[in-house]
Amino acid sequence: MKAEHIIIFLNSTINIFKEMTSVNLEVKNKTIKNVPVTTEEVGVIIGITGDLEGNIILNLSEKCCCSIAQNMSGIEFKEYNELVESAISELLNITMGKSCSVLEQQGLKVDITSPLTIRGIDVKLSVKYSPLISLQFICENESIDLDLSVRAK
Question: Which residues have a Cβ under 8 Å from the Cβ of 101 and sit 6 or more positions away?
Fold first, then answer.
């Protein structure tokens, strides 16, 4: 994956999280991961198709999901539920939609699939392209990983 594409995904994530949740994501680390990727508690997966193809995985805790959903809606969530799951899925959907818009401005034709949410601690996820780039963020003292398994066609 080109560095300029990583920067687009990074910036879109930071900007959409701030816009939708009023949360400032702090970049903690950028690492390389091999498959399988292991979930923390919640993994949201979106596929990328077109001139770029692969998967994006948002990996975070249920507590972090509840906090983000509360910031998005103004409703307090004491535990993870369907509304929280919907909010997190939609947040990643909007984030990747923004990334695709920026990529299209650079002449790439890309689209995204509907988000898929997986719950469970240490669930192993295999993706087509390995190794993958992991962007690690801190959000209100919680860790969030955005794993990019994307390649040019």
Answer: none
Q: Examine the pLDDT at 140 and tell me if it is beyond 80.
A: no
Q: What is the pTM of this model?
A: 0.91
Q: What amino acid is encoded at 82 in this protein?
A: E
- The Cα–Cα gap between 57 and 55 comes to 6
Nearest to 125 by CA among 70, 43, 18: 43
- Say if CB 82 and CB 74 are below 8 A apart: no
Residue range 72-118, pLDDT digits in tens: 999 999 999 999 999 999 999 999 999 999 999 999 999 999 999 99
Helix (H) or strand (E) run with residue 153 in it? none
Structure-block tokens of residue 147: 């794993």
* Domains of the chain as residue ranges with CATH: 3-152 (3.40.1550.10)
